[in-house]
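For consistency, the fold was encoded as tokens, as this record shows:
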Amino acid sequence: MSGKLENKVALVTGGASGFGRQSAIRLSECGALVCVSDINEDGGQETAKMLGTRGFFHKHDVTKQEGWKEVIGATLDRFSKLDILLNSAGVDHPKDNVEEPDDTVWRFILDVNLHGTFLGCRQVIPSMRRAGGGSIINLGSILGLKGDGGALAYCASKGGVRLLTKSIARYCGKEKNGIRCNAICPGYMLTGLLRKYLDTTNDKEDQHAKLASLHALGRLGDADDVANLVVYLASDDSRFITGAELLVDGGYTTM
């Protein structure tokens, strides 16, 4: 896929690890110049080093409008335009259920996962319009399609991302600004967050097998499975796709 994204410029939030990091790497490998953003400075700098001269890091809190203006401005200063936004930053919490009513947890998850994604979509549109169009890619989740009693705010936030994505796509279509907006909804993926969770369980291998069995393919995915779809949605190969929610779930939603 080398060269598929030549002369394209991407901004990747949550780029310090997981889907964000691997997507930044794949976008760069395919020719894009990449601004890696994250609140985690050490991890973000590490990702940027992996990209060499094709990328740089900018510390960024996605919940702050001024932060979005700064990171977009830094990207334009470095690369002169912006074609691709991957809203990958996201959080969860172990006490995210209806009977442990901690308003700070609810607000924190909604603020990062949903409000942060909204701010990114809103703030990037003027720059993409000036560039003649672009691709906004939002990270949803299978838990935006199916409920989970232990992930109340997370499910609500990712369900919101689904309809936010469709609404942004509809708006941009009516405006004829050349901007597409799509969502990727991963299943359980063997990334750092899931590995960290498995390490806390009494029987790591048994828990891994149980999670794998929830998917029709009988295994877990990894960050590459998401990153490859990010490249597709960022490229002109997906030029007639907007407002879509693309599942990368190994058949989880068929079970």
Observations:
- The mean pLDDT is 94.
